[in-house]
Amino acid sequence: MKKKTLVLVGGGHSHIYLLKEFGLNPNSLLNIILVSEYKYQFYSGMSAAYLEGIYSKDEIRFDIEKICKVSKIKFIKNKVVEINANEKYIMLSDDKKIEFDIISVNTGSIMYGLDIKGVRDYASVIKPLENLESLREKFISGIDKRKNILVAGGGAAGFEIALSLKALSKKLNKVVEVTILDSNSEILSKSNKKIKKISKKLIRENKINFLANKKIKEVFKDCILTNEEEKIPYEYLLWALGSSSSNLYKKSNLKTDIKGFLQVNIFLQSNEYPFLFGAGDCISIDKYKNLKKVGVYAIKESKILYNNILKYLDGKELEEFVPKKEFLSIIYSANKTGILNYKNITFNGKIAFLIKNYIDVNFMKKYK
Ligand SMILES: Cc1cc2nc3c(=O)[nH]c(=O)nc-3n(C[C@H](O)[C@H](O)[C@H](O)COP(=O)(O)OP(=O)(O)OC[C@H]3O[C@@H](n4cnc5c(N)ncnc54)[C@H](O)[C@@H]3O)c2cc1C
Question: Separation of 61 CA from ligand 1 center, angstroms?
Answer without folding.
Answer: 12
